[in-house]
Amino acid sequence: MSLLTTTQTRPATATAPAWPLPGAVSGDTSVHDPSMVKVGSQYLVASTHHQVELRVSDDRINFRRLGPAFSSVPAWWSRFSSSNDVWAPDVSFHNGKYWMYYSVSSFGSNNSGIGLATSDTGQPGTWVDTGAPIFTSPHAGYDFNAIDPNLLVDKNGKWWLTFGSFRLGIYMVALDPQTGKPSTTDTRIRHLAQRLHVWPDPVEAPFVYYKDGYYYLFVSFDYCCKGVNSNYSIHVGRSTAPDGPYVDQAGRNMVGDGGTLLLGTHGNWVIGPGGQSVIHDNADNHDLLTYHYYDGRDNGQPKLGINYLGWENGWPYVY
To answer: How many CA atoms lie within 13 A of 206 on its CB side?
Structure first.
């Protein structure tokens, strides 16, 4: 299997990148915030809206809609969203089952909850919700925002949840690997990233990936969800420890505006890429960057993007 792109070269410089087009995908590919996991030999993609949309592909190119992850709406969702809408799922496989963290929020506020569900198969209607282990509220003294979750199991087997959006940036907490909920013995909240000089701190969609001795924090800068006017872009920093500090290629701490540009708008096709996740695909031994972008050829419709991630001198690039 291969991803068909028009450019397979390393960007020459950070200031003049030769970014490739997304790999060839077809079928039902209108998504926001895609998270991909292997289910046997298939590729399962979970995405925002409609009780978590699930799609599947046999070849990583042709995708079809399976249906919603949840067969019914958990009662607690209405506490955070009058429309019972859910965002930015994060799906992975650990301890013999599939784990999904997801966001329920009132748009534009930090009245937000991160839900957790598990499944033995990953299929629609099999997900068992366990409530909201993390939540924030303007009435509870929290300034940050509990959305955009990402589960990391580090090289030593410790579990972490990274989350956050705007409102003072990106955070991380330790988890209990038996329950997937916040640890009762390690309760410290780590601050991983913030845009100090850009109001209102537009950084979100964190994803942490381990590679060759480093943890890489991928985030989206600026604004999604505006069609052809979106200016989302993907940035990255790295750390030798899962809970940071994360610095970019210039040595800037990501809590202080750091973040090396990995992928941005290019041409009139790929506009505002972001909402990213990363997996390693053993089928062809490649790391994959999965994201959404807005298609300038299709009136700014959101589309699924998949590209290979390469590595040079300890830093990722897209090809």
So the answer is: 35
Per domain, the residue ranges of the chain are 26-277
The residue among 117, 159, 109 whose CA lies nearest residue 139 is 109
- For 172-198, how does the pLDDT look when each residue is reduced to its tens digit (9 = 90+)? 999 999 999 999 999 999 999 999 988
Sequential DSSP letters for 19-56: PPPPPP-EES---SS-EEEEETTEEEEEESSTTTEEEE
The overall longest dimension of the chain from CA atoms, in Å, is 51
Interval 235-267: pLDDT, tens: 999 999 999 999 999 999 999 999 999 999 998
Q: How far is CA 252 from CA 220, 244, 258, in A?
A: 17, 13, 5
- Measured CA to CA, the distance from residue 219 to residue 46 in angstroms comes to 18
Q: Where does residue 227 rank: exposed (0-12), middle (13-18), buried (19+ CB within 10 A)?
A: middle
Three-state SS sequence of 88-100 = EEEEEEECCEEEE
Residue 58 tokens, joined: 């046999």
Tell me how far CA of residue 187 lies from CA of 175, 183, 191, in angstroms: 9, 6, 13
Q: Tokens for 128? A: 């068992």
307, 292 Cβ separation under 8 angstroms: no
Q: Which amino acid does the sequence have at 168?
A: L
User: Cα torsion at 48, 207, 192, 109 (round to 10°)?
Assistant: 0
Which of these CATH numbers, 3.40.50.300, 3.40.50.2300, 3.90.1520.10, 2.115.10.20, describes 26-277?
2.115.10.20
Give the three-state DSSP class for 236.
Answer: strand
Q: Which residues are catalytic?
A: 33, 204
Beta strands in 76-213 (DSSP E): 87-94, 97-105, 112-119, 128-129, 134-136, 150-153, 159-164, 170-175, 190-193, 203-211
Residue with tokens 């289910």: 39
